[in-house]
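batch job 7 of whatever, protein = ParH-like protein
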Amino acid sequence: MNRARLWWRSRRLVDGLDLPSPFDPAAFVALLAERRGRPIELLPVTVRGSLPCGLLATTDRADYICYAADTTDLHRQHIVLHEAAHLLWGHEGTADPAVVGLLTPHLTASLVRRVLGRTVYTQPQEREAEYLASLIRQRALRNDQGPGAPSPGQARLGPLVGARPGGTHPPRGPAGAQAPDRAPGRG
């Protein structure tokens, strides 16, 4: 799927979501479970070595989102959103049974129907989940700030990316090219 199509499909998914405010990943997962009509359990795990930092395991009874407990809050949030994005996309896949056993020792191999592990970002499903997780986080931040509030860091980073104070952007010339930001006659 090309980037533009991925963006539009992801955007439609995000626009159809109820996000708690203030945003909390656990509350979001609870809303998602309600929407899907089946439980989703969050399981913090200690990640060792080359194990994935997140994993989605689906059983007949529930979905389990395993996430690295030994990382930063922001990273944990992104892992949970990434695995939830797999559910939103309806992805199915498999992972190494040894990885599943290490991360979810309380689930038997016969109980787990499908597993998606966060290890390879070149696979289309991983790109879709990563993109959707980022858009969910972006919308959650925007919702928490309220209408008209600048995004985090906009005041500091805006000039570096072409934004003007107050959130406006420089005018664009033909074909979306950015218009020069200098007075006529100056080079």
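notes: Strands lie at 40-45, 54-59, 63-68, 112-117.
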